[in-house]
Amino acid sequence: MEDLFSVKGKIAVITGAGGVLGGSIAKSLSAAGAKIVVLDIRQENLDSKVAELKAAGGEAIGFICNVLSMDSLHETAAKIVKEWGRIDILVNCAGGNVPGATLSPDQTVFDMKIEDWEKVTNLNQNGTVYPCLAFGKVMAEQKEGSIINISSMATYSALTRVPGYSVAKTGINIFTQWMAMELAQKFGEGVRVNAIAPGFFIGDQNRAVLINPDGSLTDRSQKVLAKTPMGRFGDITELNGAVQFLCSKAASFITGAILPIDGGFSSFSGV
To answer: In angstroms, rounded to a whole number, what is the distance separating the alpha carbons of residues 85 and 141?
Structure first.
């Protein structure tokens, strides 16, 4: 009997795969039998991740790619098709907040530099839209494929201090739904576009605002956990199963969905 959740043999392209989130998803899909295309803008991250996946018995290739350059993306798509013949999965992990776009507690939105706003919105929004266009075109021609974008809890209701990141991720939500509609109507039901919306995970980008230097929780962390029914932060590996599900035949009638993976944060009023 066929395993509905199988991704074995699928060609999975992961942007930002040299980072923590992309690296975790790459490792998980590789362990499940997918062939991984590692994309990153930094050579050292790229080489390290490809070597790690191969050492674990997986098949992997890597390319330096700028997700904000359509020329770079189209060139990379052509290389992937030449190497492995097709593209089955795209996971858009490139993105994240930037320090200058996160307001300090004593700042207001009027203190934020416009260049930081443009940097964070461009990286997250266009850094997702452009790969969808470049690699999605290959899927459209195949009439088969699955795209997974990365949303955020910052899109469900206003979070203090991160206006640019919140706006960019909210844009990803509507683009995910729009692209899902566009591809299904014009290229058939085989091409699907969904997103996951991670809750709160402690990583390098947000550690300083969630954990004090002495290891105790910040006031922000305490507020997050108070609104999270499960009462804890997530582990980055807890995103992997949802990604594999959305890429598999088990999700064949799911497109345009934004799946929260948040320990209940988005469903709880706090009261």
So the answer is: 12
Contact 246, 196 (CB under 8 A): yes
156 catalytic? Reply is no
The CA distances from residue 101 to 91, 136, 163, 166, 263, in Å, are: 24, 30, 8, 11, 26
SS3 of 49, please?
Answer: helix
The model's pTM is 0.96
- Residues facing 35 on adjacent strands: 11
- Which of the following is catalytic: 63, 165, 187, 200? 165
β-pair partners for 38: 14, 62
Of residues 254, 240, 131, 243, the one with CA closest to residue 193: 254
* pLDDT tens-place string over residues 7-49: 999 999 999 999 999 999 999 999 999 999 999 999 999 999 9
CA distance 135 to 129: 10
